[in-house]
Known about the structure:
Order of helices and strands of chain A: EEEEEEEEEEE
Strand content of chain A: over 45%
Radius of gyration of chain A: 13 Å
Number of helices of chain B: 0
Number of helices of chain A: 0
Number of strands of chain A: 11
Oligomer: heterodimer
Structural class of chain B: mainly beta
Distance between the termini of chain B: 37 Å
Order of helices and strands of chain B: EEEEEEEEEEE
Distance between the termini of chain A: 41 Å
Number of strands of chain B: 11
Shape of chain B: globular
Helix content of chain B: under 10%
Largest interface: A-B, 22 and 23 residues
Largest sheet of chain B: 7 strands, mixed
Structural class of chain A: mainly beta
Largest sheet of chain A: 6 strands, mixed
Shape of chain A: globular
Amino acid sequence: KQEVTQIPAALSVPEGENLVLNCSFTDSAIYNLQWFRQDPGKGLTSLLLIQSSQREQTSGRLNASLDKSSGRSTLYIAASQPGDSATYLCAVCGNTPLVFGKGTRLSVIA
Amino acid sequence: KAGVTQTPRYLIKTRGQQVTLSCSPISGHRSVSWYQQTPGQGLQFLFEYFSETQRNKGNFPGRFSGRQFSNSRSEMNVSTLELGDSALYLCASSSHYTDTQYFGPGTRLTVL
């Protein structure tokens, strides 16, 4: 059974800092890994999708990497801003739709 | 393109009642997945429909059911509500479940 773990559970950083969020999964038989953002009380916004054959994907200040063999992914956020404050969730897609981690709650302090 | 819409946005029910939630996917998307989000368990997959057929099902009791119509709109039903069913119910649509999933704003269900 696929299990997804995100560390840390919460993170607080000053504005402008670069940061890394971590995600690990137990079963490497995946189609893709997706990173989402969730604002309080809202739905999920898709940030990046990395196919199992890819190593990384970039969108603006966000860069996600995938190491399928070790079961790990990282989300790198450059030059963080207060508007980046949210919960970040990673999810893996395998034989069934998405299995989610519990998320990392990020606070960027101005 | 219009995003995924869910109705109603908020619901309050009492134990033992039943509830039906609705999801309208992005135009052209044939896959609709449902998820339950609670503070303790996080996001958990309920089921996925593609072209009116349930293709995947999560580990939830039979009180949770769903269906998909020919226009890809989907409904989920929870019968005999329990206090533990209080949660944010999210639906997501995609061209296929292995593609990027686009989530709706969710329905907040409170069971008293």
